[in-house]
Amino acid sequence: MFKIKIVYLLIPLLAFFSACSKSDETENAAAVPTLTNFIPDNGSAGTSVVLNGKNFSTTIASNAVSIDGIEALVTKASSAQLTITVPDSVHTGKIVIISNGSSITSATVFTVN
After folding, report:
1. What is the CATH number of the domain that holds 101?
2. What is the C-alpha to C-alpha distance for residues 50 and 31, in angstroms, rounded to an integer?
3. Closest Cα partner for 34 from 102, 110, 84?
4. Residue range(s) defining the domain that contains residue 73
């Protein structure tokens, strides 16, 4: 009798764990944002910069962008582009984007004029 009850407990557990598959992990990995380029690559405070890539959050508040550690204002967001405004007191440095729980850093620097 006890063995039968254990079997009834194990069946839902097996079904639960078998529902997780390697394809789930692949789909989550595909959502990691990437940064292709940013235009322009130089400017001063107040300049609008377009960041091109993929897998950005489409919600403005879900994207955080900084230049050389200084937070920039995100003004537009789509899955392939973010538009930011260069903040005051910023120095030449790399752009860091935090979107969809992942952080990415530009390969090149944004030059402040």
Report:
1. 2.60.40.10
2. 20
3. 102
4. 32-112
Q: Pick from 94, 88, 91, 98: which is nearest to 38 by CA?
A: 94
Q: Of 87, 86, 77, which is closest to residue 40 (Cα–Cα)?
A: 86
Domain assignment present for residue 5? The answer is no
Measure Cα distances from 55 to 35, 47, 59, 71, 97 in Å: 9, 24, 12, 20, 12
How many Cβ atoms from other residues are within 10 Å of residue 15's Cβ?
Answer: 9
The structure tokens listed for 108 are 């090149």
Minimal CA–CA distance to 108: which of 91, 89, 90, 95? 95
Query: How many domains does one find in the chain?
Result: 1
Answer yes or no: is 21 within a domain. no
Distance CA 107, CA 102 (A): 16
Report pLDDT digits (tens) over 66-98. Answer: 999 999 999 999 999 999 999 999 999 999 999
